[in-house]
Every structure is written in C-alpha cells, then in structure tokens.
C-alpha cells in the first residue's frame, strides 16, 4: 500500500457534514463580508448577539471553560461541537459551522495546503507531547530503526503524521522503508488492537488504555517520542471569522478565557482529573492521572516570527517526505499576531 499525501478523508468529510447538520448550518454556506486584514484593529467590546461555535476535541475546551467558570463570564454566546482531528475540523470551517478549534501543529498547515488559510490565534507549549509510539504485542520497538519494514498507522491530517515522519528521519529511513497506513483518528487504536497495523502513535488517554489492555506491548523510549513532537497546542480560526469584527472581538476574549481556564486546570490537577477524565470522559481516575502527566501543564507562548519558523520546520518535514502536493508551502501568514498578549521584548 503506497503512502498517500495529504487529502481530506471521505469519512472525515462525512463526519463534518453530519455535525454541520446537527448545528443547523448548510454545508454549502458561502463566506461573505469584509476581507481578512491581519493589521486591522480588534475591538475590545463584543457586539450583542454574537455567537461563536468551537470545534472541540474530546470536550476539553468545553470542560475547561465550564468547570472553571470562564464560559459564564464571556459575555457572548458560545457553543461546542466535538470533532476527531484536523480534516473534519477543516470541513466545519469551510461550512462556517465552527469559527475556532483546538489542535496541535499540523492542522493549520493542512488548511494552508488546502488553500483555506486559518491562522493561529493562540499557542501553548505542553510540558510533554502527550503521544506515545506503541507496537502491537510481539513487535519489537526499542529504537526508531525498528520501524523499518513495519505497517505504521497514523491519523492523517494530524500532528501524528508529522511525528511519524520525524521518527523516520531520525532513523535515516524513507517512507518507502515502511508501509504507511493513513487512518482516521478514531480508528488507529482499534487497528493496532486488531493486528491490522504493527505500530502507531497513540494520544492520551488512548495510549494508556491500550497499554493496560496489552501489557506485553512495547513503547518507543520516551526521549525518542518527545523528540518527535513539537508539543505545540493551538487555537486557530478561518480567515472569514477573523475578518468579521464581532467574531474577531469574541475570539480575542475567548483566547484569554482559555488561558485563565488552563491556569485553573493546572492549579489543582487532582480536581481536573476528577472533573475531566473521570467526569467528562468516564475513564478511571488512575488512567486519567497517567493521561494528564502525559501532557503536563500548558505554557502560553508568544505569537511571533519564532512560532512561524517552528511551523515552517514542520512544513519542511512534510515536504521532504513528499507529503505536500505541489511541493513546499510558506508558513508566512500562518499566525495572526494581533492576538498576541505577551509583552514585546
């Protein structure tokens, strides 16, 4: 099975279409209004009647904002819809069903590749990457070189794709030395458990749950896993939403609220484990604790040229492995500097 460059998976598009229908928004919605101007000032006041729909993942933003009390202080309407990975989120952006999403480093890049630029408006550095490279029982996985000849599953259009490519590069392997198997985010753990693939990056808490169920499964050493990840987490938003003055003002306020909510999370990890992992995700608190430690706290990082350079580095990894149709793209314009809240240095 030949490795495939970025494309929007049909099932991801179908999922997004279904969620768009639930939200009552037509998938044929067309963007109108002012053109995106990354130098236009953003108002401090949010007009009455403004509503923002958040493309959430595993209900993390909904739980953070609600449990911390920040959602009630926003002063505008906010809705949440859960999505599994960047490709489905991109379709929701296209349909104007959602106006902002939480993702890792690759989805904003793929939005640019798909000619639907959606700039980053908030960035955090996680203490740890939160993803482990796991093998099915019976498969040796002690170094990145052990990837050679293996079926490697990954969620296409997500940070897991770049992680796999970084691991291959670290071992001096090309994508022709392995069999890449692009899957949906929700399919990867099941495929590994069924023996349909040999190795896959698994996010928390899926990684912990899989390893508890398969104690003989090997995991790539932690230092190699961490080196293959950027550890970046973003809020990003389509240009049409950022061009709308009311929505831009709401997104600026939302970004600050998420920062405060995350500080609330990290101030008492036991409370968060009970609230989110045991409460919202319905998993044992012991598993939730391991999952929390897999990411650790989040540190807000500046929206600056250094962040653009980090995104360009990830683009270069994708391009070097032939994963960008038409070749390399530029990261310029991938960050909306107006949303930066860090003091100038």
Characterise the protein shown here.
By secondary structure, the chain is of the alpha/beta class. It folds into 2 domains: 216 residues, 3-Layer(aba) Sandwich (D-Maltodextrin-Binding Protein, domain 2), CATH 3.40.190.10; 97 residues, 3-Layer(aba) Sandwich (D-Maltodextrin-Binding Protein, domain 2). The strands form 3 sheets. It has a 6-stranded mixed sheet, sandwiched between helices. The protein has a two-stranded antiparallel sheet with strand order 5-8. Strand 6, helix 5 and strand 7 form a beta-alpha-beta unit. Helix 1 packs across helix 3. The protein is globular and about 60 Å long. The N terminus is likely disordered.
Task: Set out the fold topology.
Layout: H1 10-23, E1 51-56, H2 60-67, E2 77-82, H3 86-94, E3 100-103, H4 106-113, E4 120-126, E5 131-135, E6 151-155, H5 159-170, E7 179-183, H6 188-193, E8 199-203, H7 206-213, H8 222-227, E9 232-236, H9 239-243, H10 245-267, H11 269-280, H12 285-295, E10 298-300, H13 305-320
Helix pairs in contact: 1-3, 2-10, 11-12
């Amino acid at each position: 099975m030949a490795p495939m460059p970025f494309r929007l998976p049909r099932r991801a598009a179908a999922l997004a279409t279904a969620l768009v229908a639930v939200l009552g928004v037509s998938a044929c919605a067309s963007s109108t209004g002012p053109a995106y101007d990354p130098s236009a000032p953003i108002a401090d006041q949010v007009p009455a009647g403004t509503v923002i729909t958040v493309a959430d993942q595993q209900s993390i933003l909904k739980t953070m904002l609600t449990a911390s009390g920040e959602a009630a202080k926003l002063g505008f309407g906010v809705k949440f819809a859960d999505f599994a990975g960047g490709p489905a989120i991109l379709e929701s952006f296209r349909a104007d069903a959602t106006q902002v999403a939480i993702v890792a480093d690759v989805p904003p890049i793929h939005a640019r590749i798909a000619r639907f630029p959606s700039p980053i408006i908030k960035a955090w550095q996680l203490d740890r990457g939160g993803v482990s490279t796991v093998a099915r029982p019976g498969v040796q996985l002690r170094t990145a070189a052990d990837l050679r000849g293996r079926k490697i599953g990954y969620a296409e259009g997500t940070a897991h794709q770049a992680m796999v490519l970084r691991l291959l590069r670290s071992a001096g392997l090309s994508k022709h030395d392995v069999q890449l198997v692009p899957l949906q985010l929700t399919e990867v753990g099941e495929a590994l458990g069924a023996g349909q693939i040999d190795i896959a990056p698994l996010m928390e808490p899926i990684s912990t749950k899989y390893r508890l169920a398969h104690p003989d499964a090997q995991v790539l050493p932690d230092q190699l896993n961490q080196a293959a990840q950027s550890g970046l987490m973003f809020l990003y938003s389509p240009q049409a939403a950022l061009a709308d003055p009311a929505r831009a003002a709401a997104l600026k306020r939302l970004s600050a609220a998420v920062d405060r909510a995350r500080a609330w999370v990290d101030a008492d990890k036991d409370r968060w484990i009970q609230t989110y992992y045991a409460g919202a995700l319905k998993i044992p608190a012991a598993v939730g604790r391991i999952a929390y430690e897999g990411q650790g706290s989040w540190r807000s990082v500046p929206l600056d040229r250094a962040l653009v350079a980090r995104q360009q580095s990830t683009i270069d990894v994708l391009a070097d492995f032939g994963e960008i149709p038409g070749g390399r793209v530029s990261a310029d314009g991938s960050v909306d500097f107006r949303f930066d809240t860090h003091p100038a240095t």
